[in-house]
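Input.
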Amino acid sequence: MKFLIIGLFFFGIFFGSCTNINHISGTYTNVFKGIMGSEIRFLQTPDSFKYYLRTEGSVKDYSAGSWIKMKNKIILEGFNNNNINLIAVESTFENYPSYNQDMVVIRYRPKQLDVFTKVDVIINEDKRIRVSGDTVFFSAKKINNIRVVSFYNHDGLLLFNPERIDTLSSSKITMSVNNYKRIALNFSIKPEDFYRIKLLDTLTIKNNKILLWGNRKMKKVI
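Output.
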């Protein structure tokens, strides 16, 4: 009987620590008491994540992308050479033959109190228009291509935490010039986008509260 009880005890410990977890969600971090550390936010619809390396009061590194679970491992696929400088822009355009100029509708809401992020819309590669939020403007010259660029202008005020990326840019969006049209651009740019890093790494699931990332122990907080 004594050996049976001991056997059941170790059996319970073994299976109680099993890492067969079907769902990963929420925020895991090793940041405590304001010191520098890592934070990963997992989303399931779709399976995406955001990663931050935080210092006290600011972001030092940032990445985002998709994740997949393989047994007790989580593989993070963040920014890479193809998208680390890319601004994702949703664009639509409709022909309006009765117009006598092109209309451009911008949907962009900067982060509150962000005075450093500057955004320009470049038309036909020769005209640059500064935008600071939702706006509408017109062009008498027909537009055949348009793109969005952004840079971080802090005049040396962030020397203690310099940005990692100088300029972000969308792909060039091309369109027909047969008629005048209404062009709508919807995009988002945040200060952390200038701290993007490439990321491809693997975490180990210890249990539903703890992930191991190299020598970092990431604890679930939300």
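The longest strand covers residues 58-70.
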